[in-house]
Amino acid sequence: MKVTASTVARTIVLTIALANQILTASGINPLPFAEETVYELLTALFTLGAAAVAWWKNNSFTEEAIEADEYMNTLKEKKKKEELCR
Questions:
Q1: CA neighbours within 13 Å on the CB side: how many for 79?
Q2: In whole angstroms, what is the distance from residue 75 CA to residue 81 CA?
Q3: Low-confidence ranges of the chain (pLDDT < 70)
Q4: Residues 6+ positions from 3 with CB-CB distance below 8 Å
Q5: Cβ distance 6 to 57 under 8 Å?
């Protein structure tokens, strides 16, 4: 099973953002050098951004999903070639 690097990266970023958000909500400040208001704003933006990207992208973890992605890409390439030939 070959999970793409971008899928792994998005998953890691989302995990870090969620952990950071939980720590902040628990009163633990992982970045002690930031002012509280700025820190909370940046954390919220980071979490929202990571969640939006993770939700929007197709994160294929199973072998079947990865195979389906490859098939979809093949169909898209075939369609592009057909459109170019017209």
A1: 6
A2: 10
A3: 1, 31-35
A4: 60, 61, 66
A5: yes
Contact yes or no for 75/26 (Cβ under 8 A): no
The answer to whether the pTM exceeds 0.70 is no
Give residue 32's pLDDT. 57
pLDDT score for 33? 56
Beta carbons within 10 angstroms of residue 14's beta carbon: 20
Q: How far apart are CA 20 and CA 50, in angstroms?
A: 12
Q: How far apart are CA 12 and CA 10, in angstroms?
A: 5
Three-state SS for 26? coil
Instruction: Tell me the domain boundaries of the chain.
Output: 5-61
Tokens 């998953």 correspond to 11
Task: Give ∠ CA 1-19-6 in degrees, rounded to 5.
Answer: 30
